[in-house]
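Write out the 3D structure for:
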Amino acid sequence: MTQAILLIAHGSRHAPANDDLHHVAAQLRGRGHAIVVASFLELAEPGIDEGGRACVAQGATQVIMLPYFLSAGVHVRRDLTEARERLSAEFPQVPFRLADPLGRHALLIDLVEQRIAEVG
């Protein structure tokens, strides 16, 4: 099985804001994840559908859709679920699995404390 990671952020018209997701993708590739694609819900390219297609084109037989979001708001619950359904219909042989957003993960608390310490 060849697993791909499809990172999904909201997207911004301000290109440097989108660079953060590309940085995360590069770091994951550096840690041995062969197929990692950064994609955006809106305002930046590639979109989620294009990102999913890129994963399959690179040989993915399973795609983990990872929302680079802090909470499971409308975008995660509705928009990303709809994108997963579209991609699953387009590529029925490839499972597209939607991961939870980052928000309540315990390591985020450590990160928040680290950021506080950096300025404190």
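The beta strands are 3-9, 35-40, 62-67, 96-98.
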